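Hello Y.,

Per our agreement to keep a running log of every chain we model this quarter, I'm adding this entry. I've kept the format consistent with earlier entries: sequence first, then predicted structure.
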Amino acid sequence: MRKFVFFVLSCLFLSSIEALAWDKITVVKKTYPSVSFEDKVNPGNSGLYFPVSLESSLRSQEAVDLRTRSGFGIQQDLCLDGASYQQTAVLLDGVKINDPQTAHYNLDIPLTIFDLEKTGIYKQGGASLYGAGSLAGAVDFRLKKPTGNNFETENAFGEHALFINALSASFLNKDGLGVRSSFEQKISKSDPANTDFESHIASFYLSKEEGDFSFNQFLGFQEKNFGASTFYSNLFPEEEEHTRTLLLKSSLNKKAQPGEWAFNFYWRRHDDKFILSRHESGNTNWHTTYLYGLDSSCRYKLGFIDSTSAVYFSREQIDSTNLGIHNRNSQAFSQKANLSLGTFFLSLAARADYYQTSAFKNSYNLSIWYPLIEERLKINYVFDRSVRMPSFTELYYNDSANKGNSSLKEEKADNFSFNLDYSGQNFSSRFGIFLRKVHSLIDWVRQNSSLPWQADNLGRVDFRGANFLFLKGPFELSYNYILPDKKQNGYLSKYALDVLRHQAILKFTQNIFSCDWAFELSYNRRYYSEGYFLGNFTLSKTFRLEQKEVVPFLKVDNFSDTQYTQISDVKQPGRWIWAGIKLKW
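Predicted structure for the entry above:
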């Protein structure tokens, strides 16, 4: 209790500092058809430099629960507003790329630190927008377009034999043709024991813009080899894993009658070699999954109604020594309509997904915005019905530690949320409450710690929550509270019920002595464990010489050396100090 009081008093003290400059980091809010995004702008574009990876763009964000199994994004589960990692859609430039084997690999996306421009976070369901799977919302990673001719490198080293090397070359000609090629390598012995890792990423991005026409293509490859100590079961502390991801995505946009047309094609292959015990022969599983599809949409005007119609075709398949050979085809149609009547805004969305092995799965979304005080105070209400099909792992996996269930039913969720947004001259804030009723919730459960985990439908579980966000320049304070109300007892939950019940985050950046300082402080307490404090610190200095830029930086992750876990018995790294330098010319 005393630690919590100290944390709150620290927040109040920092919020009272008025003489400091508050203009370094920007949070941009945009409203899309049926969607409200918060675009977290890359700090490197606003005067500060931080190594920007998928992990760092999500860590310490309000309502985001990034449950890591190892440092530096080697493997992590992405959760929103108390939902499980399987219930969040992962998008690349608006295209859903969730892994069909298991959502443990949703963030196996071959993006280097030079590829990511910003991250959009949508928290109010969204199956009507992105298809089955987004019960709690979606995270959209948006690719950076080449803006000129330049070269960038980053080299870093640190504790636990950490080495990071990355380089990128970008070109843009006068005809609007842009090209970027990037490479990134990360190696570490890591801590705790048996969590060593080696990761390689190579990516290529092509963009062409001319008048009302634009074309983008991304090709990326990622390879990761790592020790996976107790990653999936406390019964096996010497697990090992090797993964490869190959991703191709092409997009074409054209303005033509009757409106704006968009076409997306995507293809993803993921290979996974899992070893139950790295020092024993046998017990090795091989999995190869494919995800590919095509979608087309048209946005047009019908009087005062802004409408979007879209069709989707996708196929998921797996070839596994453990799960067998399976595939799943789906087709979908969606319709969205936005109505703006003076200051009143209404958005409606509906989608029907058809699977070859089941009937139609329907989802829909209603969103209402209304200003109580013009340009200052807005009220928002959202109702959303979403569905999720079980993953291949939940259906078919079987070993001595985890057992799937081919009789699983799909999950359904009804989301209700209410939000108040206030924008003042010097600050902004938001308060919200939500209720998510999940039917046939899927989780891995067991009676005691000596038994294997079993995938099962738990019936209905209600998740209630409240959140608060305060922004003033580079100062950000947020608090999230979530409480699951399960209707059954007598079992242990591996993922779905072990929510982040309390999450308080304080972030602060400032330029002192011509150096940029950034602090992240958080208090976290899960439903089944004790609370803990975490702190991260970054120091950087930018030197500019004509067209060149040199940025040395120092980073301290978990500077309080807190011992904690985020998933079952998977211990997280302690204090980790590393430093490096970025060059751009």
